[in-house]
Structure formats: C-alpha cells, structure tokens
C-alpha cells in the first residue's frame, strides 16, 4: 500500500510538500507507517479533481442502478479485504482485532450495501397544485462533499458519509484523522478496483488545521460532513459560514446510562461495562455517566466492580484482550489528568485509576476506571473524557434520574434500564438525545439514524435521514397554460 502518497483524481501522488510523518502503534509506541503530510495545496488539487468529476464526469449521470452496483461492490471488496482492513484499523487505533474485524469493518461494509440499495430509490414528488401547471420536485446530489473524520472509528465513520454521498451521485474528498489514515488509503485502492470513475473519491492525509480547514474554506466544496470534537465542530461552523456550506456535525457526548431499581441487574451491569469500556471509552456515545437508583446502588456496584476485574487489558491483536491502549500518548495524558481531577474533586475511586502495565513496559494502556459518588457538578461528569473512565451518580426518583441525565450540554445518546415498559417509554421521550437505548447499550444499524441534540451536533447519519444530508430538493414548475 502506498501510505506515503495521496489519492487524487484516480492517481497516487506524493504530497506537494514532499513531507511524510509517522503513525504510531499505540500498543508498542513503534512507528507503524509513514504517511503523506498533505496541506492546502494538495486539498486544492483534490477539490479540483472532485469538482471536475462532479461537473463533467460520468458519476452523477450514469444510471442509478449502475451507481448502486458500484457502491455494492465496494461493500463486497471491503469484506474481501476484511483481515487487512481490520489489522490496519487496530494498528493505528489500538482497538482490539475482534472489534475491528468482527464488528466495525463488517458494519462499514453493511453501510455500503445498505446505501447501494437506496441509489435507485431516491425520488422527488409530483404535486397537483392547480390546473395549467405541472409541478414536481427533484432530489439531486449536492456536489462536492468534504468528509472530515476522527480517530476513534476511522473507517466506520467514513462509511457513514461516503456511502450515502456516493449513492446519491456526489463526489468526495476524505480527510482522515492524522493518527489513523491507513484504512482510508486502503479503501482508495478498493475504489480503483471497483471501477469508481476518477476523481469521484479522493483522500488527502495530513493535519486537520491545514488540510481539514482548507476543505472547509474552499468555495468549490458544497458540503462538509464532519465527525469530531465539539470544539473543532464549532470552529468549522464559523468557517463554513464564509461560503454558506451545507454542514452536518456529529460531535461529542456525555451520555447518561440510567439504571432503575426494577431493571434486570445482570443485563444492566453488562450494559454499563460495554457502555463505557467498548473501544476503551473512545466512543462519542459512551455511557460515561452511570445513574444508579439508590435502592440498588450497593448491589449494582459490587457486581460491577467484580466484573470489571475480568476485563483484560493488553495487546489488541491478542484474542483474549478486551481493552487495548488508548490512541496516543497525548490522549493517555488527557485521560490521566481527568482521573486526577476526579480524585481531587472528592469522587470515590473504586476501580483502576492509572496506567495499566501489560508487561512490555510500552504502550498507552489505562486501567478501566470507575469513580463512585460523583455529582453532575464535577468536571469528570461534565466534560467528555474520551477514555475508560466511568462516573457513577446515585439518584432517588425517575424524575430525578431523567432530569440529571439531561443536565449536560451534550445530547448524543442515552440508555434506560427497567422492566416497566411505561417508565422506559416516558424516559425515552423525556431524554434530550438523538438515540435512546432501552435495556441495551451501543446498538447500531445502517437503517437507523444516528446524531445529536444540543452541542452534540446536527444532522442524522444512516437510515433514509442520512440521504437527506447528500441531496438538495429542487422544485420545478412547468406552466401549461
Ligand atoms: P478532532 O475534532 O480533534 O478531529 C476530528 C477531525 O477533524 C480530524 O480529521 C482532524 O484532523 C480534523 N480537524 C482538526 N482540527 C481541524 C480544523 N481546525 N479544521 C478542520 N479539520 C480539523 O476530534 P478527534 O480527537 O479526532 O475525535 C474525538 C472527538 O470526536 C470526540 O469529541 C468524539 O466525541 C467525537 N466523535 C463524535 C462522534 C459522533 O458520531 N457524534 C463519533 C466519533 C467521535
């Protein structure tokens, strides 16, 4: 694989700066690849290629069925290259090979297949408005899409953007996160193999502030699809105002996981663990605030702290490992400083609390960490830590649980655990978040929209709602008089 080059206009070429940088394996701290340091000048070329492919290339003009076939083929090729894609994803992110190979890359392939089916089903409406007029709407592709993605689910979150964008006839420039660009480059190879016309999909690797911002500012880009931190999302929104770009933002979260006293305790304990420790807590929807109804608090906590001991931290390529290292040294230091802040603010540390030693003396490993007796006022309950740190907050009544769950600037996801269906549905309505799980955590499907309320962003990816982000509605009025 040509990791040191960019994929622009159907060709591989070195960055104009001639520079590369190293990606680091977070489990070993060793260099895993050298990658092109793309900048504004490379983005300029990539956008020109995507623009040309949209304005005069075949992609938006070929039949929807042919477009669908190519998008489906991409899904097939992802599965045919599953082992390599999974290995590359784990190498950069530190996620377990199980998670990338059995869960995330197959899910990304499914997203391509799901939207392949939609290609032939995008349609407008005819409206019978009056005699002497024929009025209808068209749903057309937006044009050139700039996709900017984070490092926690590099390829999966790219698929949520690329698949609907392509199915609807758009062209794409992808800017992967600097730490995790390898699956994006592999996917570019698969696009060549699938017969995607040149310029329809382009990849520019490089730093967000330069390559990402250049995409946001470029007047030839019609839409930015961004997933990342709320802070950068706000910056992008300000910059995109300059050209009034279409924008979808999937941002951070501080999701409440609310356990009522009548819940199935075993299931809720398991859900609390996956809710926070899947992908080492580097999940936008992580159930990082666990609300426990006081009556069951002690029983729940004894089960939870017992179960957390079984979570093996270690080499992500080892089958027995349940939690790999966090993505980078910087992320490790951020998470450790939040743990320190929890201790200082008086939260009770009941599990973990520091770096995990897996015997190699290397790697950015952190113990699964649980703080009890947390209040919503503490920093660890207010800010997104993006690491394996759980804050447990006791509550007394249903109303209090929901109100405290809502007490956050974010609104990405939430879960409630109860055997009372009425209570579950009332809570699901009252919680201000884009996804609410009942008696479950972290369940996703290509057909079910995902996105945020409040400062978790706007726009819904996946499902039919995901297509709205990549089409414009045009009204046509034909005067028949
Ligand atoms: P980040 O915001 O630092 O970076 C995201 C992407 O934006 C990267 O590709 C980065 O290079 C680029 N970027 C950085 N600065 C930029 C700028 N000034 N202009 C343009 N692009 C820029 O986020 P991260 O640290 O990679 O990822 C973690 C964050 O992503 C967390 O806050 C997490 O909650 C969020 N996230 C949200 C979702 C969701 O669906 N809502 C999913 C996953 C992650």
What is the mean pLDDT? 98
- β-strand percent reads 15-25%
Note poorly predicted spans: none
Tally the structural domains. 2
The radius of gyration is 23 Å
The 3D shape can be described as: globular
Q: Could you estimate the helical fraction of the residues in percent?
A: 25-40%
How would you describe the overall organization of this protein?
- With 481 residues, the chain is an alpha/beta fold.
- The chain folds into 2 domains: 6-251 and 456-479, Aldehyde Dehydrogenase, Chain A, domain 1; 256-445, Aldehyde Dehydrogenase, Chain A, domain 2 (3-Layer(aba) Sandwich), CATH 3.40.309.
- It is built from 15 helices and 20 strands.
- The chain has helices at 40-55, 64-80, 82-93, 97-118, 154-167, 182-194, 208-217, 230-240, 265-277, 294-308, 329-344, 379-382, 398-406, 421-430, 463-468; strands at residues 6-8, 11-13, 20-24, 31-36, 126-127, 133-141, 144-148, 171-175, 201-203, 223-227, 246-250, 256-259, 289-293, 348-351, 369-372, 389-395, 413-417, 435-438, 457-458, 471-479.
- A hairpin with a 5-residue loop joins strand 5 (126-127) and strand 6 (133-141).
- The relative contact order is 0.14.
- The model has no long low-confidence stretch (mean pLDDT 98).
- The structure holds nicotinamide-adenine-dinucleotide (NAD).
- Nicotinamide-adenine-dinucleotide is lined by residues 148-153, 157, 175, 177-178, 208-209, 212-213, 216, 227-229, 232, 235-236, 250-253, 284, 384, 386, 412, 452, 456-457.
What topology emerges from the helices and strands here?
Blueprint: E1 6-8, E2 11-13, E3 20-24, E4 31-36, H1 40-55, H2 64-80, H3 82-93, H4 97-118, E5 126-127, E6 133-141, E7 144-148, H5 154-167, E8 171-175, H6 182-194, E9 201-203, H7 208-217, E10 223-227, H8 230-240, E11 246-250, E12 256-259, H9 265-277, E13 289-293, H10 294-308, H11 329-344, E14 348-351, E15 369-372, H12 379-382, E16 389-395, H13 398-406, E17 413-417, H14 421-430, E18 435-438, E19 457-458, H15 463-468, E20 471-479
Parallel strand pairs: 7-8, 7-10, 8-9, 10-11, 12-13, 12-17, 13-16, 15-16, 17-18
Antiparallel strand pairs: 1-2, 3-4, 5-6, 6-20, 11-19, 14-15
Helix pairs in contact: 1-7, 2-4, 2-6, 3-4, 3-6, 4-5, 9-10
Bound molecules: nicotinamide-adenine-dinucleotide (NAD).
Residues 148-153, 157, 175, 177-178, 208-209, 212-213, 216, 227-229, 232, 235-236, 250-253, 284, 384, 386, 412, 452, 456-457 line the site of nicotinamide-adenine-dinucleotide.
